[in-house]
Design goal:
By secondary structure, this protein is an alpha/beta fold. The protein is 27% helix and 29% strand. The chain has 9 helices and 15 strands. The relative contact order is 0.15.
């Protein structure tokens, strides 16, 4: 089975004229796994024609730019006719109350299939960040979640193609920390946030984010094959952030600026 990474959205905080917020698809002949579901992602999935092919959803953390479109996805899965089976939704175990809170806000009491949209659409499962454990989230695709360091419980994700050993990792929102490096170690593709060009200690270590230079430093230290710089807060600074990442990652790491519509094969790059 062949897996590819399809970049759906890369914007931090909210959509921009050129990109949805955070969202990525791992695609194979069997179907797709969605990583993060920020605003604008469901529209992009509909345009790609993959909504019916979803095998699972994995959300790194509860902040709106990574999770808000779960409401739109639940509505689409449940209405006008509900999907035959609930879609597995993996979420940090410490934040599973997100589902009940969101359903309280958006549920429609007079529509039986939308009274608790997320609970009805998704088979909600917790990611244990205290004991990283491999989970087969789709046929031949194994996920291990590691604790990132952010303002809320946040998961750095490591997906491995069981057939080839190829690895794609996602930073989530985080500063540099052991969990991030464990997820990224030796990854063939590493999708890493680079929210800022320059930032204060509070923005980086206090809140939990990275600069382009920080993303490159992690990529070099972890020996990744290709770094995809993503989650840029100000699109006008994207090229400068990318340049900083290129410089700090060094010549042994291919460093790309993640853009919606990019499709990269998941293959060994080392």
């Amino acid at each position: 089975m062949t897996w590819t990474l399809d970049i759906v959205g890369v914007a931090a905080t909210a959509p921009t004229p050129t990109s949805a917020a955070s969202g990525y698809l791992l695609r194979s002949e069997a179907g797709s796994v969605l990583v993060d579901c920020g605003p604008g992602v469901v529209l992009e999935l509909a345009r790609r024609g993959v909504l019916a092919d979803l095998l699972a959803v994995v959300v790194t953390h509860r902040h709106a730019d990574h999770a808000l479109d779960l409401g739109a996805l639940a509505f689409r899965l449940q209405f006008p006719a509900p999907r035959a089976e609930r879609l597995p939704l993996w979420f940090p175990a410490e934040s599973l109350d997100f589902v009940d809170v969101f359903d309280d806000m958006i549920g429609i009491p007079t529509v039986p299939t939308l009274q608790a949209p997320l609970a009805q659409a998704f088979d909600v499962r917790g990611l244990d960040l205290t004991t990283p454990t491999p989970i087969e989230v789709a046929p031949g695709l194994v996920l291990t979640a590691h604790p990132a360091r952010h303002a809320v419980p946040s998961a750095s994700l490591r997906f491995e193609d069981a057939a080839t050993g190829a690895v794609v990792a996602f930073s989530s929102d985080t500063c540099d920390c052991p969990g991030l490096r464990a997820a990224a170690a030796g990854a063939d593709l590493f999708v890493c946030e680079a929210t800022y060009l320059d930032a204060t200690e509070q923005e980086l270590e206090g809140h939990g984010h990275l600069t382009g230079a920080g993303a490159g430093t992690v990529a070099a230290a972890c020996g990744v094959g290709t770094l995809l710089v993503s989650h840029v807060a100000d699109p006008a600074l994207a090229d400068a952030i990318h340049a900083d990442a290129v410089e700090s990652a060094g010549p042994d790491v291919e460093t790309l600026l993640a853009r919606p519509g990019q499709v990269l094969p998941l293959e060994r790059r080392r």
